[in-house]
Amino acid sequence: MARLLFPFLLFPLFASAQTNILTTNPVAEQILLGNYNPADYAASAVVTDPALIASGLNNGVSPDSLKSYILKLGTFKTRNSDSDTLSPFTGIGAARRWVHTKFSDFSQQNEDRLVVSYLQFNHQTDCGSGQYRNIMALLPGANPAKNGVILVEGHIDSRCAVLCDTACLAEGIEDNATGTALVMELARVMSAYTFENTIVFMVTIGEEQGLFGAEAFADYVQQKNIPLRAVMNNDVIGGILCGKTSSPPSCPGLDVVDSTSVRLFSFGGFNSKHKQLARFIKLEYRENLLDQVAVPMNVRIMTPEDRTGRGGDHIPFRQHSYTAMRFTSANEHGDASNGPGYSDRQHTSDDILGADTNNDGAVDSFFVDFNYLARNTVINANAAAIAARNVPTPSDFSGVRTGDQLAVTITDSTNAGVYRVALRTTTNDWDTVFTLVGATSGVFPCNPTGAIFLSVASVDAQNAESLFTGEKLVTTVVSTGEPASETEPNIRLFQNRPNPFDEATWISFWVNEVPVHRDAFVQIVDLQGKVIEKMPVVLKQGLNEIQYTHGYGVRGTFAYALIIDGAAVDTRQMIFAN
Fold it and tell me: Which domains does the chain have, with CATH numbers?
């Protein structure tokens, strides 16, 4: 997991840094381009019922398999991107060859349905230059004409405190053997099924040195015009113990345990396709898996794109305009700062499997919970399975609110006949998801005041949703994108979202017409009137948003106001609740 002081500047820094990008197996490129006979990759018995698939995935993912992959990944001593590529036993070369072999084994176990390849490219890093390889297994879709691609990824490289130290012990168990193992287990279990879209299971290199393995694949799919529909990145996804330090928003203190929560990070606020993907993942878990799992999971949709000052392999895809998000465990053991007094395991030689508490030579106290990792693997699997059905998303929709009733009209050239209508107010998640059957319009209950964010999806004949549309804002009367009533104020400050919140929140306001002004800012104050922060804003017509991050460990009620030329336009309260 990379530590990035300026994650949003990555694209200009690393654009075009990867050269000679190619798949070592030419068949893999043809699969990605949709040039193949789907009958060559169809399962003998094709299961299409999403409920049966969800059950099969839940029963098929094995904590023991995940443990075996992680144990093996630890034996390579280091998986630094610039470590040994020739040794058969240690270094990144041995590790990537082993993953490639395992992908091939999984294919043989499932009717040779996986196409295994490296994504090879050249790159120059702070540690030197060379040839690097991601490892990928492709599960070809049943409908090449639609040719959508779903990517599930996790990085394989590890590191110690010094980025270019290739001699140190860097087993990288939590960061990120757990993500690599998750991707491998998905390839094993999901290759028993046939999906309409192609699924790519990819283990990336170079995450710790600037996300350049993910950047290489993002460049590749963009250059080849491959229709990448969704990216699910898994990084630090199996640990359950909190460290002394942890990049917020994270865990409350040393050795606190959380084995029932997982965090979903994604970019943006209003009308973010990345947040919509995170909401989709949570909805599919709640509706397809929750009633059959032994241990329910709390799937938390986070406000920021990543933890404060940190970054991951979903970011290059977002920067290339692909829909992307990140799974991360609730608790992390460290913030990777590695400064004086740093005692946590992340980015050190102590990122190992566990401890031998009774000195018998065997680990008996594990830092990774394999059952927890299995639960996160199933959440990934179910979401990828539904997304890979490629149900067409409605082309347009509108909403009109009158009092506490919201009339929704959907435009859908495919005439799906069943639709989901999602409403959101003050949280990162949907408040309610309604089902509309046998019609393209309907009336639904809603809050009579405040902003409503509306989006819709189609549902296929087997009750599986499409990915959801972008959001539209419904304010007072209509959802054409702006308040229509002349009695509405020119500028309206909305309730922050989410509220209460734990580390970051979105503050938004609507501007009908931009007034002539000198300056504008959002001001945060405590209830005694002490100014906590001033955030300059550039007023624009329509919806304006600004993300406020106060950090971890703050509780209480605060006020925020939009100040234009020294005068408060409006003021509201928000609650910090760590």
Answer: 2-387 (3.40.630.10), 396-474 (2.60.40.10), 491-577 (2.60.40.1930)
